[in-house]
Amino acid sequence: MVSKDEIFPIAIGTWKIDPDNFDNDLRALLHSYERGQNYLSLYMMYNNGGVVKQMRQFVKCVNRDKLFINTNLEPTIARPGDVEVQLDEYLKILGLDYVDSLQLHSPWFSNLPLEDVYGEIQQLVDVGKVRYVGVSNANLEQLARIERVAKIDFFEGVYNLECKLYEDMGAIEYCAHSDKLFMAYQPLRRNRTAMRNYPVLADLANKYQKTQNQILLNWIVMEKRLLTLVKSTNIERIDENIGSLSFKMDMGDYDKLNKFRSEEFDNVAVNWDGTGVTIDQLANQFE
Ligand SMILES: NC(=O)c1ccc[n+]([C@@H]2O[C@H](COP(=O)([O-])OP(=O)(O)OC[C@H]3O[C@@H](n4cnc5c(N)ncnc54)[C@H](OP(=O)(O)O)[C@@H]3O)[C@@H](O)[C@H]2O)c1
Question: Is there a contact between 89 and 122 (Cβ–Cβ < 8 Å)?
């Protein structure tokens, strides 16, 4: 089984995998796995379960114990028992007897108090159906409530050059000091950061002879020491992303990225109750 410290720094995202044209995506996923990417993030909501259904093929082609499988609970958990029902659906579809981690996709997805949901998840760890507990899209107050009932090992949140809210509020530092791995999703903001061609990124790409997306991933992994969750089903871009791990930049250059601020994103007011702009939508506010 893959332990926390064996997780490859670039995890496999699955948003926009096309279940109706899966042959190409399966080839790309296997390429990712062969290149070392060993963390797969699954979410039943994507294509109404279509992505998870197709993923059974992928899981059958690899050594299951060398793949870390993260699963997300869907909205409208109405009773504590719904947590195990949703987990069992993943296990049945994928043909598995355990998942590596389970998390509520977002705190506002539950009609129950967070303590009730995470008490259930912790029990599933205790009986061996889940190995680790994850939290996603929470704020620090919600995280503290969850920690009263469960041992948290993973925290998934948006982080990229333009959206640094989790760093600003101290969540990244808190995770580092409490042995939680922070998984940064949308690190490339779906290629939109590079499309903006910010001078600092263009200059660093030119200096190191790398693409802007490689500069972004390198900075998040090497300097910020975070895991990244990226979706790509294009073999050239998978190789490009993995190529971001094979160089180092000067401290002064990392510092330029550390200091970068986006006034536009800094001024978005994020709501934590599921209304208005929610944290999972922050990176999608602007092209
Ligand atoms: N917990 C949450 O609330 C949450 C929210 C959002 C996302 N996620 C997870 O995080 C994963 C990553 O987020 P995301 O997919 O929204 O954003 P992302 O990984 O930043 O970007 C993915 C998009 O960028 C393209 N891409 C990847 N590498 C590229 C490169 N080197 N150059 C140019 N384009 C590149 C991909 O297209 P190709 O496939 O064609 O390369 C895809 O369209 C998701 O798939 C999902 O699993 C979780």
Answer: no
